[in-house]
Design brief:
alpha/beta; two-stranded antiparallel sheet; about 50% helix
């Protein structure tokens, strides 16, 4: 187990964080560039911190913004941040993305081109086309000009080091199956039952979705718009943590606290641990529903500890003293049946935390099969990485968004994220959770989490997305025989998105009306759907939330839907671009997914091509062949 001991790595990480030489040089470089562009007065203003979502400053005199055309059909406003060459390149890229043959075979074609043209010429071709359009640069230093230009046009970055492994399906399946089974399951397929899973099934029944299935072991299956990490060993997770740390330093140096870094929990630990924790959480929800007589979760019922003890006693369960001592409560009653905050304790034993009362059998049962010492240490390592990253983000005054993943991981991911919020979001929203609105339960999940934030007095941060895994989720549910967790149609997903957003906006308005700090709730509308963006803008106006409140922001991918992002940023709204970066050859899987994603949004593709063509002709007619973007906008 020596490979699991990461104390040396931790010490090295601490030294790097205390003396980040390269990042200090990088920050000095960015500051010198920004000083030249903006002058010392604006730089001083940019350093001030005032917003939960944007983190930008307040001016005594309001900066000037452009009027917003909510038809999002103004090509000049959309592309004023681009050179004429970049507009031409974007048009060519989108033309290529409209070819079904090229898109469906893009990865093979890129590999053929690389073999034919050689490394250097292939890299040049990619930089002149797909890579140049969708990726900001090769490393955190080369992306500085892109970040600077975005900022000058009112847009802020969400950084993501988009290097992906290009591994075969067979290798992906092998890694996933091995890393998703416990040592007990590997030793004896029947041992899991001997170790307590039979007892667990008395609370919630069989839950096949939280067990690995080889048919879906390659988590890239039917997924086009999300990156996938496959566990290899603990050393790989340590390297992933270092990459995320570098992203945090990069965004801090370039954005003065307005930037965000996106991370995935599957990059930081063994999938088996997330699967088992997710299963425990779902069984815990079943237990809570049984205790409440089917009336929903505990947090909304104002259940006192005495009443809980009485209900358990009436069910014939008497050895509940230790269980009741760990119940999370406040003056209004029980918040959680479990001390979930203990998950972030690097010294706690995971398998000892989940002995619960079973009402059906009138006894205490274990929800989590016994973990080996090595698996317990793996979980503590993952928690350590999470704590390190979020503490770094807090120290640097930048935000960290934890991406949503498949539903069989998501209960664990959301639970850990909420506990990170409770621990670190004490003064403003540092940690943001991601909610996928193609799931039927999203609205209820958000309501529950908002209630927890209010009861436990922490700042709530959320990114709302439609979601990336719907086709895989439907296929997996059908194959494994459990209820489909997804909405039945695109329209139903849109309805869930709009209802969830309205719930958040209504709660923000309630805080304003009560004279409370409305920045206690921060929301990112992460959508490429212009109707959803228009809905958000109209709801903000109707409910009474202004851009100056700095609690709502909008986000789109670099190279996609510029007709939404830039007009918003230039009109005084908080607008973000998701900025991928990394070496050309190592981001090919990312570029492949972008091509496939664009094929799936032909309506938006047609509009973007039309706007590009109009702007290109406008510049040609005006002789603006060598137009140089020069923005003077201040991000909010």
């Amino acid at each position: 187990m020596a490979f699991l001991k990461i104390s040396t790595s931790r010490k090295c990480s601490q030294i790097l964080l205390q003396e980040p030489f390269r990042n200090d040089v990088y920050a000095r470089l960015v500051r010198s560039l920004t000083t030249t562009a903006n002058g010392p007065a604006e730089q001083h203003q940019q350093r001030r911190n005032s917003s939960v979502v944007s983190g930008s400053s307040s001016l005594d005199a309001k900066p000037k913004f452009d009027p917003l055309d909510t038809s999002f059909a103004n090509p000049e406003a959309t592309f004023k941040s681009k050179t004429t060459w970049e507009i031409f390149r974007a048009y060519i890229v989108y033309q290529l993305c409209s070819s079904s043959y090229l898109v469906e075979n893009n990865m093979q074609l890129m590999k053929i081109c690389k073999a034919v043209f050689g490394e250097k010429l292939f890299t040049l071709i990619m930089k002149m086309t797909f890579y140049g359009h969708f990726v900001a640069g090769e490393d955190q230093y080369r992306i500085v000009p892109t970040l600077k230009r975005l900022r000058s046009f009112g847009v802020k970055p969400i950084l993501d080091y988009s290097v992906e492994e290009d591994i075969s399906q067979e290798e992906a399946e092998k890694r996933e199956v091995e890393s998703s089974m416990s040592e007990i399951e590997k030793r004896d397929q029947n041992a899991a039952q001997k170790e307590g899973s039979v007892s667990a099934e008395t609370v919630g029944g069989s839950l096949p979705q939280y067990h690995v299935d080889k048919q879906f072991a390659d988590r890239r299956y039917k997924v086009q718009s999300a990156r996938t990490y496959f566990y290899l060993n603990e050393a790989t997770c340590e390297r992933n943590m270092e990459v995320f740390t570098n992203c945090l330093h990069a965004v801090a140096g370039a954005t003065y606290g307005t930037g965000i870094t996106a991370i995935k929990l599957t990059a930081l630990g063994r999938p088996q641990l997330l699967l088992q924790l997710s299963e425990v959480i779902m069984r815990a929800r079943t237990l809570a529903s049984e205790i409440m007589g089917g009336k929903g979760n505990v947090i909304g019922q104002h259940l006192t500890l005495e009443e809980l003890d009485k209900r358990l006693f009436q069910a014939g369960i008497k050895d509940t003293k230790k269980f009741l001592e760990k119940v999370t409560k406040d003056s209004q009653g029980v918040i959680h049946l479990f001390p979930w905050s203990g998950l972030l304790d690097e010294n706690s034993e995971l398998s000892d935390s989940f002995r619960v009362p079973c009402l059906k059998e009138g006894r205490m049962v274990r929800l989590l099969s016994q973990l080996s010492k090595k698996e317990e240490e793996m979980f503590r390592n993952m928690v350590h990485r999470l704590n390190t990253l979020v503490q770094t983000a807090k120290d640097l005054d930048v935000r960290i968004m934890i991406d949503a993943e498949q539903t069989y991981f998501q209960p664990a991911i959301s639970r850990l994220t909420l506990e990170l919020m409770q621990k670190y979001n004490t003064e403003k929203a540092i940690v943001f959770n991601t909610y996928q609105c193609y799931l039927k339960e999203t609205l209820n999940e958000v309501k529950t989490d908002l209630n927890q934030a209010k009861r436990q007095k922490f700042f709530f941060g959320a990114k709302l997305v439609r979601g990336a895994y719907i086709d895989q989720e439907r296929a997996r549910a059908a194959a494994l025989g459990y209820a489909d967790p997804t909405n039945p149609s695109y329209e139903a997903t849109t309805e869930t998105y709009h209802q969830t957003l309205t719930e958040c906006l209504t709660r923000i308005k309630l805080l304003k009306d009560q004279g409370d700090d409305c920045s206690k709730i921060g929301i990112m509308v992460a959508s490429h759907n212009e109707d959803t963006v228009r809905f958000a803008l109209s709801q903000m106006k109707e409910i009474g939330i202004s851009p100056e409140d700095k609690v709502i922001c909008f986000g789109q991918l670099l190279g996609m839907c510029d007709f939404i992002t830039f007009p918003l940023g230039q009109a005084g709204y908080s607008a973000y671009k998701y900025i991928p970066y990394g070496p050309v050859n190592e981001v090919l899987p990312y570029l492949s997914r972008r091509a496939m994603e664009n094929k799936g949004v032909l309506k938006k593709l047609v509009k973007e091509r039309t706007l590009l063509r109009k702007e290109l002709f406008r510049r040609i007619l005006r002789g603006q062949f060598f137009y140089k973007p020069n923005g003077n906008y201040t991000p909010v």
